[in-house]
């Protein structure tokens, strides 16, 4: 599984976690069923789940006229994944994390999601 696909799968699993209070490992197993869990996918899901409070605080610090509670779950989940990559995964350049997040936002969000995600992540990186 390539990293782009792993990010898409991580988004879908973490989105499910945001909606339901279940264990991240169980959610990944349930979602993937027969597929083998990719190491990068597992790292994203476990990392975002275990650092969720710190990640949400980082995102909140870079929002203008918004609160983390007002952000739609799609954008919030994408921001969490990218913020985790930017702050905790050293072998991925920040611009790659941002570009991937914008692509996820274009795929799963609405027409304004990509710009919103890009703006917030650009502030986090600055």
UniProtKB/TrEMBL annotation:
One of its GO terms (molecular function) is RNA binding. One of its GO terms (biological process) is DNA-templated transcription termination. It holds the Pfam family NusB. The keyword DNA-binding does not apply. The keyword RNA-binding applies. InterPro entries: NusB-like_sf, NusB_fam, NusB_RsmB_TIM44. Gene3D superfamilies: NusB-like. Keywords: RNA-binding, Transcription, Transcription antitermination, Transcription regulation. HAMAP family: NusB. Involved in transcription antitermination. Required for transcription of ribosomal RNA (rRNA) genes. Binds specifically to the boxA antiterminator sequence of the ribosomal RNA (rrn) operons. Belongs to the NusB family. This is Transcription antitermination protein NusB. It comes from Virgibacillus oceani.
